[in-house]
Amino acid sequence: MRRTHNVSSTAQALRQVFIGTPPIRIINNSGLQKASIQPRISPILDITHPHTRSLFQASIHNRQPRYEGPPRDEDIRVNEACLVQADGSLSPVTPLRQLLGSYDRLSHYLVCVQPATRDKPAICKIMQREEPKSQQGKRSKAAVSTKKTVIKHLEVNWAIDPNDLQRRLDNLEAFLSKGWRVEVLLAPKKRGRRASPEEASNVMEKFQAKAKELGAKEWKAMEGQLMKRATLYLEGIRRKDNAVSEDVDGL
Length: 251
Hints:
Blueprint (H helix, E strand, L loop, with lengths): L1 H17 L31 H12 L18 E4 L10 E2 H5 L7 E7 L7 E7 L4 H14 L4 E7 L4 H16 L3 E7 L9 H17 L3 E8 L5 E6 L16
Parallel strand pairs: 1-4, 5-6
Antiparallel strand pairs: 1-2, 3-4, 6-8, 7-8
Helix pairs in contact: 5-6
């Protein structure tokens, strides 16, 4: 009997050594066995593979152009091209990617003016984008506002003193030399000495002679009568070398 017990003990020891303990399963609180979740990894597109690269390039070359007419920017289907420079000469053959990064994309664009052939590369040129109509309207209005006609007024008494007369003539010369229009109002003074017909005629001739000397012209025919109220409408030619007096003299 002892012998049988020893054999049994030896068999159990050998079983533990070679077989080991049975596997233990971990049970969660709900009584269900936990399952290991393996993350799903999307396949990576290898663009360096020849087949993949050819498909990628074909998708780019087969897309529809964004503009009508000669191809622009990314619609140019070449890898390299020559650029028309400011002096009209052609640059060396340059990668298209480098040309696309050499200018302001907001104000300019690259256009292919001559397609590539077997012997010659494509020729491209940098063009300026057209200004929006709204901006053109603003700029034209600003230009019109700067060209508004300036009209100055001079009031002269028929019986004016010779010194005052010379002062009026100097102001007339300054206004006309800047290209302004001048309205010269000649009239008798309400209170004061009345001029003789000879004096009034001399004053009128002085203004007409000064206008003729400066090359001015009448932009409107004279109104009124001698010895009463008369208005001369004169327009001068702009001269940059003369100073201009802004004063307007009275009777």
